[in-house]
């Protein structure tokens, strides 16, 4: 698949990431109707975005946040498959994110190949290993931590996600290097 098809997806996801992650916490993570296992996984996607050590390091600039945007869409897709009624209930509240968890996610998934995509998905949902500031995603999901804590941490992260449009466009043009990083860091060594 040509990376040209991914450039507008990357640009859209990076442009909206600042708002998307806040809305994801407010709508998805705070939904009391998600079962415990699914709630843990959607919190895991947020923790993936918060924790250093991403597949694509945030330190490289705007492009470094593409994997964080992908993690949120993977979590939405998980809800779509396991709790379609909840997914549909959010359609009016987060329409752009719901839409981006469809064809755009499928295009991105195809460009990674199945093994790389599944390795990344596993990393996003490896919540038993993820800790941020002494807290685990499952503890937050299960209400063992003040629920305002996650929203506050995401607000701090969102300040870093206020990207200039020119920087987003430039990052989207380098989506091929992001794909290479996914493949290099997630493919088993031979």
Textual characterization of the structure:
The chain is an all-alpha fold and 190 residues long. It is built from eleven helices and two strands. The chain has helices at residues 7-29, 36-50, 66-82, 84-89, 95-100, 103-112, 114-124, 137-141, 147-160, 165-172, 175-186, and strands spanning 131-132, 135-136. Strands 1-2 form a two-stranded antiparallel sheet. The longest helix is centred in the N-terminal third of the chain and has 23 residues, at 7-29.
Q: Helices, strands, pairings?
A:
Layout: H1 7-29, H2 36-50, H3 66-82, H4 84-89, H5 95-100, H6 103-112, H7 114-124, E1 131-132, E2 135-136, H8 137-141, H9 147-160, H10 165-172, H11 175-186
Antiparallel strand pairs: 1-2
Question: How much helix, percentage-wise, in residues?
Answer: 55-70%
Helix/strand/pairing category: mainly alpha
Side by side, the strands of the main sheet go: 1-2
Question: Main beta sheet, described?
Answer: 2 strands, antiparallel
Continuous helix count: 11
Q: What is the CA-CA span between the terminal residues?
A: 24 Å
Oligomer: single chain
Overall residue-averaged pLDDT value = 91
Low-confidence regions:
none
The proportion of residues in beta strands is: under 5%
Keywords, separated by commas or semicolons:
190 residues; two-stranded antiparallel sheet; 67% helix; mainly alpha; globular; 11 helices
Brief write-up:
With about 190 residues, the chain is an all-alpha fold. The protein is about 65% helix and about 0% strand.
């Amino acid at each position: 698949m040509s990376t040209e098809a991914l450039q507008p997806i990357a640009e859209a996801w990076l442009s909206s990431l600042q708002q998307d992650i806040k809305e994801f916490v407010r709508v998805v993570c705070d939904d009391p109707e998600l079962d415990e296992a699914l709630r843990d996984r959607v919190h895991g996607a947020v923790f993936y975005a918060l924790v250093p050590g991403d597949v694509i390091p945030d330190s490289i600039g705007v492009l470094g946040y593409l994997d964080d945007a992908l993690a949120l869409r993977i979590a939405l897709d998980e809800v779509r498959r396991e709790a379609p009624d909840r997914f549909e209930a959010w359609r009016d509240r987060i329409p752009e994110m719901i839409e981006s968890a469809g064809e755009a996610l499928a295009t991105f998934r195809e460009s990674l190949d199945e093994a790389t995509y599944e390795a990344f998905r596993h990393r996003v949902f490896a919540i038993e290993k993820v800790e941020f500031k002494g807290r685990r995603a499952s503890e937050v999901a299960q209400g063992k931590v003040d629920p305002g804590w996650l929203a506050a941490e995401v607000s701090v992260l969102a300040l870093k996600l206020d990207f200039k449009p020119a920087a987003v466009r430039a990052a989207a043009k380098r989506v091929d290097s992001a794909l290479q990083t996914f493949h290099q860091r997630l493919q088993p060594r031979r």
